[in-house]
Design goal:
two-stranded antiparallel sheet, 3-stranded antiparallel β-sheet, 2 domains, 14% strand
Amino acid sequence: MFPHKITKCENDFIHWRCIDCGAHVKCQISLCGISSQCPYCKKDTIYPTIQDCWTQLHKPSKLSLISVKGRDSIKKHWTMIGVSFVILFLGSLLEESLLKKGWLSRDLEWLYILIFLASLWIYFSSCVRRLHDLGRSGIHILSYFIPILGLFTLYDILAKKGISGFNKYGVSPDKQKTLMAEQDAVANP
């Protein structure tokens, strides 16, 4: 069990709540991991570390298919590409079969457009998470549409290994399962 409950991580500070007295404490990142006392109840504690921030605050998203938060490994990104293509393929099969049977008129083309946009969103949200894995902002996805530069961005997204460990977008996908297992082991001995 952690001796503190982290409530917020900022660029220079970690906000946490003391488990013993419930006081809200703000400490500088430079004090992370230092053995000290809670400023309010004076009980001995160890100030939280950056790793504590990520293990307590950044749980894997249940909506990782559509979320732009967090990080994706190369393997998961290729899986998302496959999911996007399967959705497009099944959507086009459904549309064609409904058109042939006369159950769907050409007036309902918006249905296929909706399926296309959903597939596109899944792909681009995965691209943003891959950029996060590389330590870059999601806004760099716009470089995708610039000739020549887009090819380098595409290479980075599809093949370049991400930053191992922690970055400002979360823990690396490779380490996330290990950290969650460690946290469960500490919480449930």
